Amino acid sequence: MAEEPVPHPLDPPKRPQGRGEATGSHRIVGKKAPRRKVAKWPIAAVVLVVLIAIGVFGWNWADGELSTRAEAQAKACVAGDTPMRVVVTPSIEKPVRAAAERWNNAATVVRDHCVIIQIDALSSGAVLDGLVGRTNLDAIGGLPAAWIPESSYWVTELNTAKPELVGSPAQSVATARSADYPLVGLAGKNIDEVQMRASQTFRQFLQQPAQQADFAAAGIKAT
User: What's the rounded Cα separation, in Å, for the pair 118 and 104?
Assistant: First the structure.
């Protein structure tokens, strides 16, 4: 076996062979590995989702603003106040008067008018006599926009004698023994379309739970 030559004191020392310079390796010590590229499509997708969310939020906000403004304009009574007189039989006066106060306090709007309801209590016989001309109409305070007698009998009598005064079909708003309390909208001089429409709307208002509770409290059954 050949002996290794003794290194001369002036020869440079040998460097230990590292893994980066191993024979056959292409890796070189000190050279950085190439940076891995980041895909751009996930970022673009996130941006798109954010833009869509902003667009939906903006649309909903704008739609809500328009609805709020429309409701505010509807409640502004742009056409002013319109009085509407409703004559009722005395037995139903209390719950109907309470309903009218609730209606008025809410500034209920019908065709751009704040309709202010006035309740008068008169016997059904007196009202019928005034409407058909057996007595002076002034005796019942003039022609009301709506009438609630005890029963449909009175409405039938009116329809037989003066059908032109019936502006809308009668419909019950409460019931009791031998009474169905129909509300009939009337037509004639000084009753305009707003009042005719309001009489139907008030009838629907009386059929709502809050008003029906008032009828029940007065010992009158709900419809």
Answer: 9
Domain, as residue range, for 91: 81-222
User: Which pLDDT band holds residue 39 (cuts at 50, 70, 90)?
Assistant: low
Residue 64 in any domain: the answer is no
Number of domains in the chain: 1
How far is the C-alpha of 200 from the C-alpha of 170, rounded, in Å? 9
- Which stretches within 77-169 are classed as H helix? 93-105, 124-132, 152-161
Q: How far is CA 207 from CA 42, 151, 176, 210, in A?
A: 58, 17, 15, 8
* This prediction's pTM: 0.67
At residue 37, the 3 state secondary structure works out as coil
Please give the single-letter amino acid code of residue 179: A
Q: Give a yes or no: residue 159 inside a domain.
A: yes
End-to-end CA distance of the chain: 123
> Hey, what are 135's tokens?
């007595």
Tell which wins on pLDDT, 96 or 24. Answer: 96
CA dist 206 and 103 (Å) reads: 10
